Structure formats: structure tokens, C-alpha cells
Amino acid sequence: MTRRRLGWSDQFRLRVPADPHLSPDGGTVVYVLHGDDEDVDAARSALWLVPADGGQPWQLTLGDNDSAPRWSPDGGTIVFLRPVDGKPQLWALPVDGGEARQLTFRALGAGPATWHPSGTKLAFCAPADLGGEDVDQARRATEPVVTDRIDYKADGSGLLRQLRNHVFVLDLDEGAVPVQVTSGDFHVSGASWSPDGQLAYCVTEGDVTPRSTAFVLDSRHVEGGDLLFRDAYWLPCGLVLTAVAAGGVGHTRLVRESLEDLAPGFDRNVMPGSGGYPGAAPQASGDTVVFAARDQGCTHVYAVPASGGTPRKIIGTPETVISGMSVVGERICYVEASPTSAGDIFVTTVDGGEPLRLTDYGVESLPDVDLFTARPRVFTSDDGTEVHGWLLRDPSLSEPGPLLLDIHGGPHNAWSPVFDGRHFYHQVLAAKGWSVLLLNPRASDGYGEDFFTAGLGGWGVVDQQDFVGPVRALIESGVARESEIAVCGYSYGGYAVCWLTGHTDLFAAAVAGGCVSDLTSMYGTSDAGHFLGSREFLALPHADPARLSAQDPMRSVHRVETPTLLLHGENDDRCPIGQAEQWFTALRVRGVPTRLVRYPGASHLFVLNGRPSHRIDYNRRIVEWVDQHVGGTS
């Protein structure tokens, strides 16, 4: 077979598994298989099964967007989510054959289910209207939006109006309807059943100063105090919570009901898993707690005694990322991405047995494609700080050439060397003779909490050296040509692009996606504006304008001469599109070559889960812009 490099059309050939779950007997894995449908311009997903001892996977469901599969305690039924009229509803499917049965018919939809240990009921979290179940949502959408809180909208959901996330319980008797078991002007997350059928969940109240409480229904509650709880998990050792500092920024930790840290001294961030942030829910194998954490940009699996102690890594290498995990007895299944696969399912044991690959989507999806692989690099910033990252480059190149510096979001996310199936432009540019530098500057995850918090109150001011120094090192070492340097980034990366082009003339082209350009307007218009101002910038416009201004790219926009492309979702509530509009207008008026591309209906995360056509367009435009404005490319 003739081998070739990755192309744009490969987006529609790629298949990526996610959310694997072992059956109660540990013999079968159900998982979600994701792909893109070019004909309808939409992402698609279905449920698949594969034997845990190895064998041929087979498709279980034929829905367009089936997700969140969960085995019943007896292994005979799988409940899952399938949209009906645009709203996710719970369905039940007998594993040994038969038709799927719709369980919920809520106007606002349902969320992923958790089974009662008896197998007779389900619990789930889902939006609820403070006005009750009978509110006409179509009419609600045209009513004036009245709010007394600053958290009245959320990226991806838009205006929340009277919606709050609450817990529902559904008895599985024929014709039963879900019963709302929590209510009030607060949000609930992390519903989990105890072995004896008690329901635990986390409540977050307040907007300016949020606070958390973990409840065990009809029994007791745990005040978070200085901690904000994210989710609750019933394990054999008792209730375990994921928690972060309530008043600042720091690592997510695992704590017991007593609020004692399950892994004291473990200087890595626990990763429960969420959009754009790989990881997995903590689970138990006997008297061992198994969880995911990030190390040097890669997410791995660790085990710690349920009584507490020092975690040991049981799954993962310096070149792999784990996203999704299921534990039954001594057996663990998980999805692992690598430099040559966007994800495959493996199974192993808690004691670290030899992993068995159950799927081969990396090869099956793109059998004729050769991927470039990134190599680790370590640089030293001007103040002596070590900065780690990866360089993607055709190994046959011997002469200096064009270089793209790509800056991740967060800022507490991190690059890894795996093929993620989203940043196609990395591979396309490498095939055109470019080098692509993926850096994890201070504030990146996986390098300890001091590094994680090193940028607080000093965005741009302290991290600029983490970008400029490594680029200059690659110029001096003969990798990059000084006149052919481009920069791009998304979210925080978009902020950094605006900042760097206003503070250095190093770059011949720039692309800012989902950018942040004006910190004052960002504070009042972003769904995370107050959080960013109070905990990241450590300065509020009305309280410390001078400190905020010192981190503000807009203050230096008059110095920008770099041709800049701006790519932005029109429905972005995290980094509102006005951020891109302001930067675009300032550059256009000054005569700097610039272009603004708006993606209709797209939220902040459209680059990960938006329309396939939008994602391909985003990738393609980056390549076209840097090729146009950086000379000498092949």
C-alpha cells in the first residue's frame, strides 16, 4: 500500500472511541464510537461492544448520536442517551437483543444515568426550570431575561434564564416519570449511589463567592469550607470527592468525607475528565482507588490505597494520554491516545499487567497515512525556569525553515505528543516543510502546583519569556529561520497571540482563535469573567485597574504590525466574539493586514465538537494564512 501524509478529507475517515465501560462480570466493554458525517455536516456517535479478552467489535446501536452507556447491575441492560427533537433522553436496551425503549420524555432532556444497586431505578442530573416542569420553554425563550446573578449564562448553553442543574430519580416501572429530588436556586452535580442505596451529590451555591456542600440524601451533609466540590463518588472505602480550592486556583484533589486528602503530597492534578481535558472518574478495585492525573502534559492512571498514601502510576507512558476508564475487580479498560492513534481501547489489570489492545482504530481509520511524531524538548527561560514541550518536524529536514509556535488554551491545559484528531494543521504544515513547536509554558498542567499557579496575576508579563526564549533557541540551533516564524493559539493561546504580537516583532504571521484582547470588557461579558478577574488576573477593573491594565493586550495593540487572522465562534460565551471584533477593528484601522472569520452558532469549544465543516475550515485557514505571510515554504 502506498503511504501518504494526512489530508483534510481524512477528518471524515477518522473513528475515535470514548467512554468505555466494563460489564459487571468484566467480560465485555461497551463504548461510544465517534465520527463525522460529511453529507449532513454533523458529528455522529453510536454504541459498540467488544469482548474484554479480545475479539471483533460489533455495533450495538444505530442512532445518530448515542452516548453515555451504563450497564445495569445484572449486566442485562444498557441505558444510554439519545437525542429526541434535539434533547438528550435516556433509553434502555436489552443486551441480548430487542428494541431500545425510551425512558425519559423531559422537555429539557436528561443527563447520563447512574444505576441504583438494586437495578430498579436510575439517578441523573439534568436542567430544571425554577418555574417547574410545566413551563412552556418555547415561550420562555422569548421572555425578558431577568437576573440577580452574574452566572446567568454558560458557554455551550447560552442564557440559563431560570434553568438550574438538579437531580432526578426514575423508577424503572413501565410508564414511570422522573422525580426531581433537589430544587432551589443552585446547581447540583455528581450524583452517585452508595452500595446500600443512599444518593450522594454536590451542591454549588452563590455566584460571586461560590460555596459547596456534599449531601447524602436523608442522612448527612459535608460542608466544603475552603474547598469547592465538583463530583461525588461512592467507593468501597466510602464517599470520595473531587475538590479544588474555593478561593483561588490550584490542583484538583481527591478528598474523603472528612476532607482529608487521599494522596497528600501528590503534586499532580487529578483529572476527572471533561470537554478538552482528558481523564476519568475515580473508581475502586478492592481496597485501592484508581484515578487519572496529568504528568508533563500527558494523562495517566494511578492507584492509591483507600486508606491514603502515595500514588503509583499503573498505566501510561511519556507519549500517551488516557481519556475514559472503567474498573471491575482487578480489570481496567481505558482509551489511550498515542502519537499514531487518536484513541484505542485497551484492557489491563490493577497490578500492572501487560495491556491488551481491543481495537485498532488508529490503523483502521487511516490505513494509508503516515503521521509525523513529535519529539520532546526542554528549554530554559530567561529567569531559569525550565519549559517543556514537543517539536513536530519531518526528520529528513536538515536546513532551517519556517516554524509555527502553537499555544494551548486554559491556561491550565497542556500539549501532549499524541495525535488528537483535531489539530490537523500540525500534520499538514509538517508535510509542507514546517516545524511546529508545542510548548507548555508556566501555568500549564502536569508540572506541579507551583508551576500551575506561576502565571497568576501576571498573564503575558511572566509567560512571554517562555515563548520567546524557546523560539530563539530553535533559531540559534538551525531548526527555524528567523524571518519565517508564525504564531497561533486558541483561548488563552489566542490571548497570548495578541500579547506577543504587541510586545515583540518576532512573528511574521499570527492566528488568534477564540481570543482574549480586552480584559476590562472580558470581565463583564464572559461567563467566566469574574472568575478570571478575581483568580487568574488577580485584578478587577473597578478595584485594581492598573494591575489589570498591565496584563491587557489592548494596551499594546498600537504596536502590532504582524498580519493577524482572527477565528471566532459567534456564540462563544467564554471568550465573547467582541474580543475578536475589538482586535480586528484596531488592526484594520491601523492598516495592519487582518481578517476576521466568524463561525455561526459556534460556542467556545467548536474547535473540538462543532460542525465538521467549521473544524476543517478552522484548520485550513491557519495553514493558508501562515503560508501566505511567511515566505519560503515548500
UniProtKB/TrEMBL annotation:
Chain ranges of the Peptidase S9 prolyl oligopeptidase catalytic domain: 426-632
Keywords in alphabetical order:
Hydrolase, Protease, Serine protease
| This protein's record includes keyword Protease | yes
Q: Which domain of life is it from?
A: Bacteria
What transmembrane ranges does the database entry give?
A: none
Q: By its UniProt entry, which InterPro entries does this protein fall under? A: 6-blade_b-propeller_TolB-like, AB_hydrolase_fold, Peptidase_S9_cat, WD40
Asked if the record carries the keyword Protease, the reply is yes
The UniProt entry, under SUPFAM superfamilies, shows: alpha/beta-Hydrolases (SSF53474), Tricorn protease N-terminal domain (SSF69304)
- What protein is this chain from? S9 family peptidase
What organism does the UniProt record list as the source? Allokutzneria oryzae
